[in-house]
Amino acid sequence: MNFYYDEEAIRYLKAKDPILADIIDRIGPIERPIDADLFSALVNNIVGQQISMKAQETVWKRMLAAFGAITPENICRVSIEEIQQCGLSTRKATYIREAAEKVLSGECDLEALKHMSDEAVIAELSQLRGIGKWTAEMLLIFSMGRQDVLSWDDLAIHRGLRMVYHHRKITKPLFQKYKRRYAPYGSIASLYLWEVSVGVLPDLKDYAPLTEAEKKKRLKQRQELKRAEKQLL
After folding, report:
1. Nearest residue to 132 via CA among 117, 148, 152, 114
2. In the structure, what pLDDT confidence band is assigned to residue 233 with cuts at 50, 70 and 90?
3. Which of 41, 57, 77, 186 could be 182's S-S partner, Cβ–Cβ 3.0 to 4.6 Å?
4. What are the beta bridge partners of residue 2?
5. Active-site residues: which are they?
6. What's the rounded Cα separation, in Å, for the pair 126 and 135?
């Protein structure tokens, strides 16, 4: 299943923002898969924190092979050590087991979240260890299909905004201006900003180039990820 948006959302965004309208026309429709099982999506998001997509996929396959469907019941049947053996840190394995326990006990009612506002869902999910605001926002989009999420904490969104609108820096007031402009379809705008941020339109550049310190930091992060992947694989 893909994230659903309709032509009304596209017409609205294009009418509100001619610059974004050009981006939408050039990129065309975007299909992004979602996991409608909120618990499974939640666990997968914890798994993917601070590792590459390749490593995340490897760990996820191991978990499916070891535990079957990723449900609170199945996770609570195994120990933290068994979860960890799939390639996770003790911290992540603990977060996953704790989340399963809270869902089973009813302390965290995932079904009830479907009827809550975006802000209430973020507040509720953020009470789980390992789930911060950004992760909760991604769950709103890619599990719950919410239409109006534009994440301030998402660096790729900042990059996309800089590239589309030629800004050197995205301040909070500037971000809020775009958030208001895109509402109630911030999630759909996010899809296009993410596409721009990864270079889908080669003629667009980032107007805030990396500093030398940032380049060294990213190089170090890539090296650490590669070392971690070698140990994992």
Report:
1. 152
2. low
3. 186
4. 33
5. 154
6. 8
Residue partners of 38: CB distance under 8 A and separation at least 6: 110, 113, 139, 143, 144
What is the rounded distance in angstroms from the CA atom of residue 182 to the CA atom of residue 157? 13
Region of residue 130 (phi > 0: left; psi between -120 and 50: alpha; otherwise: beta): left
Contacts of residue 144, defined as CB under 8 A and 6 or more positions apart, other chains included, come to 38, 113, 114, 121
3-state secondary structure 165-196: HCCCCCCHHHHHHHHHHHCCCHHHHHHHHHHH
Cis peptide before 184 (omega within 30 of 0): yes
> What is the DSSP secondary structure assignment for residue 94, as one 8-state letter?
H
Confidence (pTM): 0.86
**pLDDT tens across 203-223, in order?**
999 998 667 777 777 778 777
Residue in 24, 4, 3 with CA at minimum distance from that of residue 182: 24
What gap in Å lies between CA 166 and CA 186, rounded to an integer? 19
- For 65, counting Cβ atoms within 10 Å of its Cβ (0-12 exposed, 13-18 middle, 19+ buried), the class is exposed
Residue 116, classified by CB atoms within 10 Å of its CB into exposed (0-12), middle (13-18) or buried (19+), is middle
Q: Residue 30 carries which side chain, given as an amino acid letter?
A: I
